[in-house]
Amino acid sequence: MSSLHHSTFRSQRQAHLVTVPRRRQALPTLPAIFGRNQVLPVPDSTRALLEDIVSSFEALIRYAFAYGSGVFEQAGYKKQKDKQDRPMLDFVFAVTHPDHWHSINIQQHHGHYPIHARVLGSSFVAKTQELSARVWFNTFVPMKGVYGVTTVDTLCADLLNWRTLYLAGRMHKPLRIIKDDARLRLTQQVNLTSALRTALLMLPESFTQRELFSAIAGISYSGDPRMVLPAENRGKVESMVSRQEDQFRELYWRLAQGLPGVRWAAGSKSVEQDTSPHARAAHLKKLPVELLKHVHQRAEGRGTPREADESAYWLRIAGDKELPSIFDSEITKIVRYPATV
User: Fold this and answer.
1) Sign of CA dihedral 168, 170, 171, 177
2) What 3-state DSSP class applies to 313?
3) How far apart are CA 31 and CA 15, in angstroms?
4) What does DSSP say about strands 89-95 and 145-151: parallel, antiparallel, or unpaired?
5) Distance between CA atoms of 244 and 41, rounded to whole angstroms?
6) Is residue 66 within 8 Å of 42, Cβ to Cβ?
7) Is the pLDDT of residue 325 over 50?
8) Rounded to two decimals, what is the model's pTM?
9) 3-state DSSP helix/strand/coil % of the chain, to nearest 5
10) Continuous segment of H or E residues that includes residue 160
């Protein structure tokens, strides 16, 4: 081949390489109806307020939700501007790179941070955020409320594993999603199902939907020292469920239809379940890793080891009449430490 032909061939090959577009990996998507139970309606004025607040942040927020009495009404709270006990607006933001996020946010919202965080900077904030429950809360906000910042990875891990229940527990209860994310919608659906399974294992053969919702809402309050303080509304669970029963039903009714042995008719407020050891073992095996780790530790030295006969092992635990109290004490251990930090 002549040098001219060789040069022409090489130029054409390089041009071809340059002009061929690089294929991008498709972003994960979910069916439009997946997790529709998570999308709880709020009044238009509340929706607009929440969206305005979140959109005012210049730093990128991947996933955001609001919760508390300022979003969904609770008994004992009145929406009055001149009262000290007016409802709170509480937010959680999930971001990708916390150091970078706080760097931008400190520049925009300098006054949201305590003075030591402003002086030490975003790296200090991000490192502090990694401690305990891995959430940084800004409370110096010129509105009645606070916002917490965590990472997408941290939030997904707690939703799946219940390592601290600090975030997952908040998300067992009604909340308003302001910015959605496919990965978090999927893991939140797992979290809600785990809460439903756990509550069923703590309840008898028949019960009311309000008893079910109270058991679910109470999971994250087990071991929370704030619940014994005078400043905390001690009837918080009952207050929440009594005013948000419709939202709880929206979250959990469809999920319950997919669980074996659960009978909860449309329009009915009564629930029945199969409480045989086999049915309860089916729920038990699918609980989050951290809770199961605690249950396994309690089961050690009692009866047939798991290695010897796994089927008999699960049936023994599922048939234990003390299982509800075991759950209560072990969930308390998970919740207690991060709730005090």
Assistant:
1) negative
2) helix
3) 40
4) parallel
5) 12
6) no
7) yes
8) 0.85
9) 50, 10, 40
10) helix 152-161
3-class DSSP state for residue 136? Answer: strand
Q: What are the φ/ψ torsions at residue 174 (nearest 5 degrees)?
A: -55, 135
Residue type at 229 in one-letter notation: L
Point out the least confidently predicted range of 116-130, 186-200, 275-289: 116-130
Closest among 291, 72, 264, 125 to 202, alpha carbons compared: 291
Residue 217 contacts residue 237 (beta carbons within 8 Å): yes
The 10 Å CB-count burial string (b at 16+, else e) for 74-100 is beebeeeeeeeeebbbbbbbbbeebee
- How does DSSP assign 259-276, residue by residue? STTEE--TT--EEEE--S
Q: pLDDT tier at 127 (50, 70, 90 boundaries)? A: very high
- What pLDDT does residue 68 have? 82
Q: With contact defined as beta carbons under 8 Å apart, do 168 and 15 qualify?
A: no
- For 98, 101, 141, 148, 276, the CA distances from 151, given in Å and listed in that order, are 7, 10, 21, 10, 40
Contacts (Cβ under 8 Å, ≥6 apart) of 187:
155, 156, 159, 160
Report pLDDT digits (tens) over 163-217.
Answer: 999 999 999 999 999 999 999 999 999 999 999 999 999 999 999 999 999 999 9
More confident residue, 27 or 216: 216
Token pair in block for residue 33? 């109806």
Positive or negative torsion for Cα 44, 46, 48, 51: negative
Confidence (pLDDT) at 9: 46
328: tokens are 């209560």
Q: If you average pLDDT over each of 79-83, 116-120, 122-126, 261-265, which comes out highest?
A: 261-265
The pair of structure tokens assigned to 336 is 């207690």
CB within 8 A of 329, min separation 6: which ones? none
Structure confidence at residue 218 as a pLDDT band (50, 70, 90): very high
Q: In whole angstroms, give the CA distance from residue 144 to residue 85.
A: 10
- Which residues sit opposite 271 in a β-bridge? 207
- Cα(96)–Cα(109) distance, rounded to whole angstroms? 19
